[in-house]
Amino acid sequence: QVQLVESGGGLVQPGGSLRLSCAESGLPFSEAIITWHRQDLGKAREWIATSWPGGATIYDTSVKGRFTTSRDDAKNTVYLQLNNLKPEDTAVYYCHEAGSMTWGQGTQVTVSS
Question: How many other CB atoms are there within 10 angstroms of residue 18's CB atom?
């Protein structure tokens, strides 16, 4: 059974940074396609980035150039680095494994002064 455990959210001022972690178990990490999503109150969940085995990535235009996803194969963990955060980035952030359709529990990111 695939499991994803997220951590790293919090409260940050505009312009600040956070790093989210998504630790995967139950699937060979070399096969895990991890996508990142976010959902703000009253809005639909939206895709923001994908990390493929081997390191290829793709981003939504709303976060491209500010967010970066990376993988640590030794730790079975995918990271999402959030830089130059804006109030509109406030949301619950989720990681998702595409093959097993497994979701992490979500972590709250709040950008406010």
Answer: 20
